[in-house]
UniProtKB/TrEMBL annotation:
This is Protein patched homolog 1 isoform X2. It comes from the Eukaryota. Residues 428-589 form the SSD domain. Keywords: Glycoprotein, Membrane, Receptor, Transmembrane, Transmembrane helix. The lineage of its organism: Eukaryota, Metazoa, Spiralia, Lophotrochozoa, Brachiopoda. PANTHER family: PROTEIN PATCHED (PTHR46022:SF1).
């Protein structure tokens, strides 16, 4: 027994290698080096193939060999300097976190969802170039719906609507020591200047704000126009106290005319006629005829009858300027029901729109105003004032709705939408913190060993989660420094996605550390290096695959998606670096704790173990005591205990040698039951086969099984063997084919789009407004923009034809006669036709001649004369003789091309109301030119610059469904593209195109991104594993995960938008964690496909399950969000992704691998299930020091086991010892009747080189026991060779050998003589 060796004596400590004895093909004691050779040591596998003992993939083994070599050296370095590495790593991560101070959240829709460099991006850039940012108008909307019933058309409902809108117009904002009223901020039409200070002074306060409302059909609509204070023209005039409630413009004009030539009555009359301003509101019906202010001119004032509201609203309403302000019926009334005559009889909603200036217009309007002389007025301040007013507007409308029991009132402003998007994009620190805490708790519990607090890993699990959290923060800090902005997709997904991916690798390393801790052949100083050697390649593979996939997905030109994938890729890199560099340092520190026998987490306390053997029967203690080994001194041989169990037939007992006894604390804690089979019992047990286990034994066995339960044991003993069976494989195939079919069916049901109601918390005022607007109105405004490449004077026909094309678009609001509202060129032409008509009348009456005009000519005729004589040539600006021959507009309706830009200057200034109503936004703006009818000396009209930008406005209605919006966008795009190809460069602009045009190409970009991600995944796996078939199988399973997840979205009604598209791309990265580990475990194992599948599950099942559960714990925090969108689009989809990943990675992939998986990297030739034990390599020669001052003697490393017949070798020789463990089999035959109780056998420990047979004496009852003992001799082989540099020349090897021969010769001579 002196020559036996135990695996506890490691090669690095005693230069002893243990060669295993004969075992089963696949047993727990099987060495991983022989069953998972390329996983443990690719170098050994590579050399075994080169020796011809096996075949396999040498390219993959060569690559992994060198990767493992570098990772092993890295791990050993980290273990030696764990404190330094940990300090430097944490310091660098903390420094990277400082970059979070520069983080910004992008909420601008145009900068998030508009394709970078695409057509829409170029169009928006062109618009901003000419109009500037913050231009245009903003719409603040009030929608009213009934609480009960289906009809909103009642006097009380409209009066409530009046009070609500009126309250909104009374809102004031105090900012920068200035009170800002609604009239200061609203959008007002432009009135022409009449060169009369009194008229201009009177008209300025009477200029109303533009409010689109159904109240304009009634006299009460005048109350919204103001002014706040009545206008008084002075005591010398016959009128005063003017408001729109009592203003009759025609009556006022007659009063001005009766006063003589004091006022420019003709100019005012022409202006009112062109604008359609007649009697104002005084002749409209009153909703409440009993109102004292209701004028007597109202149709129902005298009768006191309530008007027919439905009839009044039929066809729409007119504002104060009927020619330019006609509100179509679909714009102000929703849910309409009409009778046979076409009159409205019932409606379910009414809508009013309050228009405000945009920040650019407000800044330009007040830039040189006296109102802001006391402050440094900027565009930022203008924007702040407008946003404050809009927020107050929403609040006022909400308060009005809460104070009534009649109807529902919903207010909404553009700022409310931006605030919601901003709130949605902000990180919920509470949810993130709770998610990380739950994951922390799970890591502690899952890695805790309840029966052994010394070997427990809760501490490193807790440290690993905190490390990954710090790594995520550091990665996001670097992203901020690189200028990658955050958005809703990144703030809601990235923290949980990055944590889940990082924790997966952490669990894999922790699991491998736990496995290596059981292997006594691994030196404690090489634990970290061995762990990185085994798992580092897989971690690198998954990390490189994920990072490459995410980087490739950045080809998607949508900024929100590109920012997401870039951030995800950077975080994957940070997680990989932290797991491979910093986490091993943490584990190395934990190894020190284990060596000092300290408890997990609470390392200040000594550890205790509860794994002592539960005695089923009392036993005697050994009287012999083996002294503990002394450092660098040979230790005494260990003692052994035999273990006896009954044979298969039950007629005799078999006793085998157990593990050596040691005084080591660890050795004393090893249970004897772990060596034998589960049914084995101590040799002190009674051997009677008929005696069953007692209740105490059952309890003890159950307790032991519960304490030692693990996912690894489950996968090894239950799950893996189950998947090997043919029925299980058939069932898995059928189920996953059905799942794939459901996925394809769900994909067909997926619709494009994203409803705004999805991103707003349900049951909030904003959600109710968006729901009502989508249900009843779906109102959007849009523009057709004409570009600078157009020759406007000569392409007028094409522009008129383009405008008529939009009659084909069903969603475009049209006038009562079915025609479209006039655009700027039409209004421009109509103004010129009116001037031509006035000129022709004056010309025919002789009031105007070629040389000029007379005093009795009209002002319009004079202006027509000035326009007709314009030539458009700056060198020869006018010719009077043209007045008789030229026409402003020819018979084909084409404006004179030569003087087109001269006419444009006159129109913009002198018909300002029409120009404003046209919303043309002509750029560059024509020069301001005021017509003076009394000046016959200055006949030149400035020529406007060539038009670079202009707009045609349209209103879209009933855009309720996303498919309707997308279809409308496609129709409009088709028209614009057709005219652009024919030489008229135009493009559409507006909210529908900014929000929804992404869906025109979203599926294409998603498909392109998925192809790139899957392609890169295949390429990386193929290159790293040198196994295209393995890469194909992984990619195939990943594609199935994507299809199944996409189908799941369709089945639960989730629409395809940018965020679901991001999750579909992410599913590939998350799926890699569920598949690659299993695949690598499969190809690195040895044996048949079923065997390799079982080995892969045994070692990878637990880490994958832990990673999946930890990811689910992080995602679970999203379920408590107040945003229904987060719950539906993030929690539901991400949860389904994890579940599908686990199902495909742990069920489908193992079955596929067991059927037609790739060949193993190593295929032994002599034994299909394991590699033969490799021949140990010689100890490498030590490096000789560069300078040796004296001869250095290398002492021989102490050996615990030696044969007394071999003399000690000189210390300058190195040796290897190969110990073959003995096997002792004791067979005891019971030679008595079965009913006779048998005696208990005794234990023994022996060493012999022959077979011994002995018989036990019969007992007093006549029982005879025959015991046969078979033993095998211990063989010890020592290979000696000199250590280079330790033997001088005079003590060379040859001389040594010669002396030995002489000694042997003398010994033989002496023996012969004797």
């Amino acid at each position: 027994m002196e020559g036996w060796s135990h695996p506890a004596f490691r090669p690095s400590e005693g230069t002893t290698m243990t060669v295993p004895t004969r075992r089963e093909a696949f047993t727990p004691e099987d060495s991983e080096l022989c069953t998972r050779t390329s996983w443990v040591d690719a170098k050994t596998a590579y050399k075994e193939i080169k020796k011809g003992k096996a075949s396999g993939n040498t390219c993959a083994l060569w690559l992994r060999w060198h990767l493992q070599k570098q990772l092993f050296n890295l791990g050993c370095f980290i273990e030696r300097h764990c404190g330094k590495v940990l300090f430097v790593g944490l310091l660098l991560l903390c420094l990277c976190c400082i970059g979070l101070k520069t983080a910004t959240i992008e909420t601008n829709v145009e900068k998030l969802w508009v394709e970078e460099g695409g057509r829409l991006d170029q169009e928006i850039a062109y618009t901003q170039k000419h109009l500037g940012e913050g231009s245009g108008i903003t719409n603040e909307i009030v929608i009213q719906t009934p609480k009960s019933g289906k009809n909103i058309l009642s006097k009380d409902s409209l009066l409530l609507h009046l009070r609500t809108v009126l309250a909104a117009t009374q809102i004031t904002v105090d900012m920068y020591d200035i009170t800002w009223r609604f009239s200061d901020l609203c959008n007002k039409p432009s009135f022409p200047s009449f060169e009369d200070s009194l008229v201009d002074q009177m008209l300025e306060p009477l200029t109303p704000c533009v409010i689109i409302s159904p109240l304009d059909c009634f006299w009460e609509g005048a109350k919204l126009l103001g002014p706040d204070h009545a206008v008084n023209a002075g005591s010398s005039f016959q009128f005063g106290g003017l408001k729109w409630t009592n203003l009759n413009p025609e009556h006022l004009l007659s009063q001005l005319r009766s006063m003589g030539n004091i006022f420019p009555v003709q100019a005012i009359e022409d202006f009112l006629a062109r604008a359609g301003i007649t009697t104002g509101y005084v002749r409209k019906s009153c909703l409440d005829p009993t109102d004292p202010e209701c004028p007597f001119t109202a149709p129902n004032k005298l009768s006191q009858q309530e008007p027919d509201i439905g009839s009044e609203l039929t066809g729409g309403c007119d504002g104060f300027a009927t020619k330019y302000m006609h509100w179509e019926e679909d714009l102000i009334v929703g849910g309409v029901h009409k009778n046979r005559s076409g009159h409205i009889v019932r409606a379910e909603a009414i809508q009013s729109i309050v228009q405000l200036m945009a920040e650019k217009q407000m800044f330009e309007y007040y830039e040189d105003s006296y109102k802001v002389t006391s402050i440094d007025f900027t565009r930022e301040k203008a924007r702040a004032i407008l946003e404050a007013w809009q927020r107050k507007f929403t609040q006022v409308v909400q308060e009005m709705g809460n104070g009534t029991q009649e109807d529902n009132l919903h207010g909404f402003s553009s700022t409310s939408l931006l605030d919601m998007l901003k709130e949605f994009s902000e990180v919920s620190y509470v949810r993130v913190a709770l998610g990380y805490i739950f994951m922390l708790v799970y890591a502690i519990i899952s890695l805790m060993r309840w029966t052994d607090f010394v070997q427990s890993q809760s501490g490193i699990g807790m440290a690993g989660v905190l490390l990954v959290a710090l790594s995520v923060a550091a990665g996001l800090g670097i992203c901020s420094v690189l200028g990658i902005r955050f958005n809703a997709s990144t703030t809601q997904i990235i923290p949980f996605l990055a944590l889940g991916l990082g924790v997966d690798d952490m669990f894999l390393l922790a699991h491998t550390f736990a496995e290596n801790a059981k292997n006594k052949e691994i030196s404690s100083k090489e634990q970290t290096g061995e762990c990185l050697k085994r798992t580092g390649v897989t971690v690198l593979l998954t990390s490189i695959t994920n990072a490459s996939a995410f980087f490739m997905a950045a080809i998607i030109p949508i900024p929100a998606l590109r920012a997401f994938v870039l951030q995800a890729a950077i975080l994957v890199i940070f997680n990989c670096a932290s797991i491979l560099l910093v986490f091993p340092a943490i584990v190395s520190v934990d190894l020190i704790r284990k060596e000092e026998n300290r408890a997990d987490v609470f390392c200040c306390f000594p550890g205790t173990s509860t794994t002592d053997v539960v005695e089923l029967a009392p036993r005697e203690r050994h009287t012999e005591h083996v002294a503990p080994p002394v450092y660098r001194e040979p230790s005494p041989p260990p003692s052994y205990q035999t273990i006896t169990h009954t044979s298969a037939g039950g007629d005799h007992a078999i006793t085998v040698l157990g593990p050596p006894q040691s005084d080591s604390p660890v050795s004393r804690q090893v249970s004897l039951s772990s060596v034998g089979p589960p049914s084995a019992s101590s040799s002190r047990q009674c051997l009677t086969p008929d005696e069953g286990p007692t209740c105490r034994e059952h309890c003890a066995q159950t307790q032991q099984e519960c304490c030692h339960f693990s996912l690894t044991r489950l996968a090894k003993s239950k799950y893996g063997p189950m998947l090997e069976t043919t029925p299980a494989k058939i069932l898995v195939g059928v189920l996953f084919i059905a799942l794939l079919v459901f996925g394809v069916w769900g994909i067909v049901k997926v619709k494009d789009g994203l409803d705004l109601t999805d991103i707003v918390p349900r049951d909030t005022n904003e959600w109710k407004f968006l729901d009502a607007q989508g249900k009843y109105f779906g109102f959007y405004n849009m523009y057709i923009v004409t570009k600078d490449s157009i020759n406007y004077p000569n392409q007028q026909k094409m522009m008129f034809a383009l405008h008529k094309e939009f009659l084909k678009i069903n969603k475009v609001i049209k006038k009562e006669d079915g025609t479209l509202p006039d655009f700027w060129l039409e209004l421009f032409r109509q103004w010129l036709l009116d001037l031509q008509l006035a000129f022709d009348q004056d010309w025919s009456s002789g009031c105007i001649t070629t040389d000029g005009w007379f005093a009795n000519s009209t002002e319009e005729g004079r202006l027509g004369y000035l326009l007709l004589i314009q030539t458009g040539d700056v060198d020869d600006p006018y010719r009077k003789e043209q007045a008789a021959t030229s026409r402003l507009v020819n018979d084909q309706g084409i404006i004179n091309p030569q003087a087109f830009y001269n006419y444009l200057t006159a129109w913009v200034t002198n018909d300002a109301l029409a120009y404003d109503a046209s919303m043309a936004e002509i750029k560059p703006e024509p020069q301001h030119w005021v017509y003076d009818p009394s000046d016959q000396m200055e006949l030149r009209i400035p020529k406007a610059q060539a038009i670079l930008y202009s707009q045609m406005p349209f209103y879209l209605n009933n855009m309720v469904d996303n498919q309707d919006v997308i279809a409308t966008i496609e129709e409009i795009r088709k028209i614009c593209d057709s005219y652009t190809n024919n030489g008229l460069a135009v493009y559409p602009s507006g909210i529908p195109f900014t929000f929804w045009e992404q869906y025109l190409h979203l599926r294409f970009y998603l498909l392109l991104a998925l192809i790139c991600v899957l392609g890169v995944t295949f390429l990386v796996i193929t290159l790293v594993l040198m196994n295209p078939w393995a890469g194909f199988m992984v990619v195939m399973v990943l594609a199935m995960i994507v299809v199944e997840l996409f189908g799941f979205m369709g089945l639960i009604g989730i629409k395809l938008s940018a965020i679901p598209a991001v999750i579909l791309i992410v599913s590939v990265g998350i799926g890699v964690e569920f598949t690659v580990h299993i695949c690598v475990g499969f190809i690195t194992a040895i044996g048949s496909r079923n065997r390799r599948m079982r080995i892969a599950l045994e070692h990878m099942f637990a880490p994958v399950i832990h990673g999946a559960i930890s990811t689910l714990l992080g995602v679970a925090m999203l379920v408590g969000s107040e945003f229904d969108f987060i719950v539906r689009y993030f929690f539901n989809v991400l949860t389904a992704l994890v579940v599908l990943g686990v199902l495909n990675g742990l069920i489908l992939l193992p079955v596929l691998l067991s059927i037609f998986g790739p060949k193993g990297e190593v295929q032994p030739k002599d034994n299909p299930d394991r590699l033969s034990t490799p021949t140990p390599e010689a100890t490498p020669p030590p490096q000789r020091p560069p300078r040796a001052l004296s001869r250095r003697v290398y002492p021989r490393m102490p050996s615990d086991i030696s044969l007394t017949t071999i003399s000690e070798e000189p210390t300058q020789y190195s040796s290897h010892e190969i110990i073959v463990s003995p096997e002792v089999v004791v067979e005891t035959t019971i030679g008595a009747d079965s009913g006779t109780p048998a005696s208990c056998s005794s234990t023994s420990s022996s060493s012999s080189n022959k077979n011994n047979t002995s018989s036990l004496p019969q007992s007093s009852q006549g029982i005879r026991h025959v015991t046969t003992v078979r033993t095998k001799a211990t063989v010890k082989v020592e290979v000696h060779h000199p250590v280079p540099g330790t033997v001088d020349q005079e003590h060379s090897y040859k001389s040594k050998r010669r002396k030995l021969k002489e000694l042997e010769g003398s010994d033989s001579d002496s023996s012969n003589k004797s």
